[in-house]
Amino acid sequence: MTHLGYLIAGWGIVLGAMAIYAFSLARRGRELSARVPSDRQRWMTTPERVDAGGPNR
Amino acid sequence: MATTTAPPEKPVKVVEPGSGTGSRTTRLLGLACLVGVAVLMVFAFALTEADLVQQDVVRMIYIHVPSAIAGYTGFVITAIASVMVLWKKSMWWDIVAVAGAEIGLLFTGLMLATGVIWGRPTWNTWWEWGDVRLMTALMLFLVYVGYLAYRRVVPSADVRARRSAIIALVGVINVPIVNRSVEWWASRTLHQQSSLSDGKLEDLTLFTLAMGFVVFAMVFAWMLIHRFRIGWLELQADTVGLQAAMAERRAQMEADIDDAVAHPGVSEPIEGGSA
Question: Between B93, B230, B240, which is nearest A28 by CB?
Answer without folding.
Answer: B230
